[in-house]
Amino acid sequence: MAKSFAIILFALCFLSTLDVSVSKKDHFVIEGKVYCDTCRIQFFTRVSKWMHGAKVKLVCREEEGGSETLAVEAETGKNGEYTIKVDGDHEEEVCEVNLVKSSDDDCAEIPTDGFGHRARVSITANDGITNPVRQANPLGFMKKETLPQCKEVLRELGFDEAGLPV
């Protein structure tokens, strides 16, 4: 009887460790915002507008070789915010949120220089961040023509019309 009890107890302990290892899968949430860069300076100002209905894409690639391991699209809500849910750890990968498509034809240019068109995010539990929610930097589509009040806005921020520090 004692031998049977010991076997059953061992089996229960062993099975409980299996359950823990299976349920320990990592889950992450990537949050960010998309705006219309009305002054074409690649950062948010008081005259920038949050974009509803813009599309972004999270892409993870292997560090070596660059093979794509994950691709998830999302659309922004009324305040320009998006949320992307990701299962699994992507420690050995480079993950970035990229601009895909604007919801405004007058503000649809994706900047090619700088970092206003993509935001790198860490999607691993091994980076010292305990919160599974990861914040991506804001991304901005550029307006075709700058707004008239941009000169004043830039002056307030200490820049000239070209966006250079005064």
From TrEMBL:
InterPro entries recorded: Allergen_Ole_e_I_CS, Pollen_Ole_e1_allergen
Signal peptide as annotated in the record: 1-23
Superkingdom of source: Eukaryota
Keyword Signal tagged: yes
Cited Pfam families: Pollen_Ole_e_1
Cellular component GO terms held in the UniProt record: extracellular space
UniProt keyword annotations, A-Z: Disulfide bond, Signal
Matching PANTHER family: F28N24.16 PROTEIN, PROTEIN DOWNSTREAM OF FLC-RELATED
Family statement drawn from the similarity comment of this UniProt entry: Belongs to the Ole e I family.
Protein name: Olee1-like protein
Lineage of the organism: Eukaryota, Viridiplantae, Streptophyta, Embryophyta, Tracheophyta
Gene: LOC111441010
